[in-house]
Design a protein that fits this description.
globular; hydrolase; 389 residues; 9 strands; 6-stranded antiparallel sheet; hydrolase activity; 3-stranded antiparallel sheet; Beta-lactam-related; Diverse_Enzym_Activities; Serine hydrolase domain-containing protein; alpha+beta
Length: 389
């Protein structure tokens, strides 16, 4: 049997362990090179709904990669002059006010420096009130009412709540619900027809965890966040396919939130990163540059994470991107004209997150080795356009 092509080898290596994941897809977009290259491996699931081979069109629960969709929407509003990043959040969301909150800006939310709790199960009853089910406005109000955990601008504290508030800001500025706003601002202009919030009924979707198993553990143990909640009456106990694994996105926000809830195939996920190449009419170069620049924390730009990655020739390149808890990741190297997405379902079938960092690192290394071409990259890899499964 011939050796598999390099990118296919990276994807097949990400599946097969009985602990999971069972599904993987890698897509690479090269500036000016036509449609994305896509390779897939595995099955949509081992437990639950009838398994199907993973295909290029298989959709995955992107989890926190959804934050990039929210960031792209904010970038559009910034470009249109409709949103001032230095405006106080309270001027847009009056429910977020009082004390140190009054000084928190939109920019601080994007930089994860607003002092918010990292996570809070808004759907579960707690000492401060009842849980929220299926009411995005009430969920935002509850998130906004929570006390700050840290002093604003005292450091980077990655927060789901910050992007829940950013999603609400997008809806406030646009005057429409988040599903419609994202379709108008992001997925429509980019031609991403399969990228959408759940729930989905399409059978070609990777299965994730069994209900809310992992979040129930977090709540029961108070780890890693000591929230004063110890029960989840709204919990799910079935295999999730097409429902956001994130409890807040599904229960509190009815599937569409600023921090989670988007489903997409690998090719369309990779195409989200094309915006950061510059040149798209909806995202002008000056806005792209502003959102790509490092903030007070070198690893964090506005909405995008930043990493310095070693290239095959021994140099370094800045990679922008974002991971998702379900085992997904979007990466963009603007200087090389490369955007790639590795999507897995690492919570299946054990409902416990499997470490896929080695698969991510291998995919990045092979993408930079085989797909970087042209004067910006200094290499002439030739596999990428012709990879097949």
């Amino acid at each position: 049997m011939p050796e598999p092509a390099p990118l296919t080898d990276a994807v097949t290596g990400a599946v097969g362990d009985e602990r999971g994941p069972t599904a993987a897809a890698l897509a690479v977009v090269r500036r000016g090179a036509g449609p994305p290259t896509v390779v897939t491996a595995g099955w949509t699931g081992r437990e639950g709904p009838a398994p199907r081979p993973v295909e290029p069109g298989t959709r995955f629960d992107l989890a926190s990669v959804s934050k990039i969709v929210t960031t792209l929407a904010v970038m559009r509003l910034r470009a249109a002059g409709a949103l001032d990043l230095d405006a106080p959040v309270r001027s847009l969301l009056p429910v977020f006010a009082g004390g140190a909150k009054d000084a928190v800006t939109v920019r601080a939310l994007l930089l994860h420096r607003a002092g918010l709790w990292e996570w809070w199960p808004l759907y579960a009853p707690a000492e401060d009130g009842d849980g929220v089910l299926g009411d995005p406005a009430a969920a935002v109000a509850r998130a906004a009412a929570l006390p700050l955990r840290y002093s604003p601008d005292s450091g980077r504290h990655y927060s789901d709540l910050g992007f829940q508030l950013l999603g609400a800001i997008v809806t406030r500025v646009c005057g429409m619900d988040l599903r419609t706003a994202v379709a108008d601002l992001v997925t429509g202009p980019l031609g991403l027809r399969a990228t959408a919030y759940g729930p989905l009924t399409d059978p070609d979707v990777a299965v994730t965890s069994r209900g809310d198993a992992w979040e129930r553990r977090m709540i029961a143990t108070g780890e890693p966040y000591p929230v004063p909640v110890r029960s989840v009456p709204a919990g799910r106990d079935h295999w999730l396919r097409g429902e956001a694994g994130d409890g807040n996105a599904h229960h509190a926000f009815a599937g569409a939130a600023g921090h989670a809830g988007i489903f997409a195939p690998a090719a369309e996920t990779a195409r989200l990163g094309e915006v950061m190449f510059g040149g798209h009419p909806g995202w002008p170069p000056e806005v792209v540059a502003e959102f790509a620049a490092p903030g007070p924390d070198a690893e964090q730009a506005l909405g995008w994470r930043r990493t310095e990655v070693t290239t095959p020739d021994g140099g370094t390149v800045t990679v922008l991107g974002h991971p998702g808890f379900t085992g997904t990741e979007l990466s963009v190297a603007p200087a090389l004209g490369l955007s790639w997405a590795l999507l897995t379902n690492r919570l299946h079938p054990t409902s416990t997150p499997v470490d896929v960092s080695a698969a991510r690192a291998r995919a990045t290394r092979l993408v930079l080795t085989t797909c970087s071409t042209g004067p910006e990259s200094g290499t002439t890899g030739g596999f990428c356009p012709d990879v097949g499964v």
